[in-house]
């Protein structure tokens, strides 16, 4: 069996196109422009790249982009004051504080200072609770992207057996909640799960988000299963740095029915869903219908 490759790059471009079309209608019919504010503290090189990409994507779909770059030594009071200012700004519909923050800042305190309605990362404790109880919330971008791709590939997910390998607050736990919401039978596994191979092998949908390079191999995949690889790991191989997922791609692709590659799978969907969440937040703030197909 040769797995169908789920092209996240192409799917993300489609999502961005849907967002751009909806943003244009909001401008023309309602005189409203969704706005995303991104706050970056410090000089972390990877974070700077992410912020640049987010800014470019925000402009591309016709949204307003508000960047706030703060020095590494910025104090907690100053950062919280900025968040309060963005919470009160009607032009800002989504707020994202780029993580990780410098060590002297309390990330939980900072994230929970964001207005939950503007928390487009879906990390605020209120949104976590709403998602966990099946209520309307802002949903973390990476799990939302995975859900969109699964719905697109399968149509209905009802009754499918799903295994999520990984229990992080950012991916594993919310991914499990989203799959439950679509009526899957869900197991959360992790690196310490006993008989992990047997657990994974019963899954119709296998989501790998454990943070260990190529941990999930073909022998752990049920024939015909859909494999979603959330991992992004840099490893040294043959004297070169290579980007790999949490799934051993070659062996898994020989068994699976469909699989996401790394790179070009889940990664591009994260920023696309950030834009979708900002659009959703804008619509909710203005009492307008939410965009179809872009929310959980």
Structural commentary:
Pathway: One-carbon metabolism; tetrahydrofolate interconversion. GO terms for molecular function: methenyltetrahydrofolate cyclohydrolase activity; methylenetetrahydrofolate dehydrogenase (NADP+) activity. One of its GO terms (cellular component) is cytosol. This is Bifunctional protein FolD. Its EC number is 1.5.1.5, 3.5.4.9. This protein has a 6-stranded parallel sheet. It has 2 domains: about 30-115, Leucine Dehydrogenase, chain A, domain 1 (Rossmann fold, 3-Layer(aba) Sandwich), CATH 3.40.50; about 140-270, Rossmann fold (3-Layer(aba) Sandwich), CATH 3.40.50. It is globular. Strand 2, helix 2 and strand 3 (about 65-70) form a beta-alpha-beta unit. The protein is about 40% helix and about 15% strand. The model has no long low-confidence stretch (mean pLDDT about 95). The protein has helices at about 10-30, 45-60, 75-90, 105-110, 125-130, 140-155, 170-180, 195-200, 250-255, 265-285, and strands at about 5, 35-40, 65-70, 95, 160-165, 185-190, 205-210, 225-230, 235, 240-245, 260. Helix 1 (about 10-30) runs parallel beside helix 10 and helix 6 (about 140-155) packs across helix 10. It is of the alpha/beta class. It is built from 10 helices and 11 strands. The two termini are about 30 Å apart.
Q: Tell me, what's the shape?
A: globular
Biggest sheet, open or closed, and with what strands and sense?
6 strands, parallel
What is the first-to-last residue Cα distance?
31 Å
Output the CATH class name of the largest domain: Alpha Beta
CATH architecture descriptor text of the largest domain: 3-Layer(aba) Sandwich
**pLDDT average, as an integer?**
96
> Structural class of the helix and strand makeup?
alpha/beta
Proportion of β residues? Answer: 15-25%
User: Count of helical segments?
Assistant: 10
Order of helices and strands: EHEHEHEHHHEHEHEEEEHEH
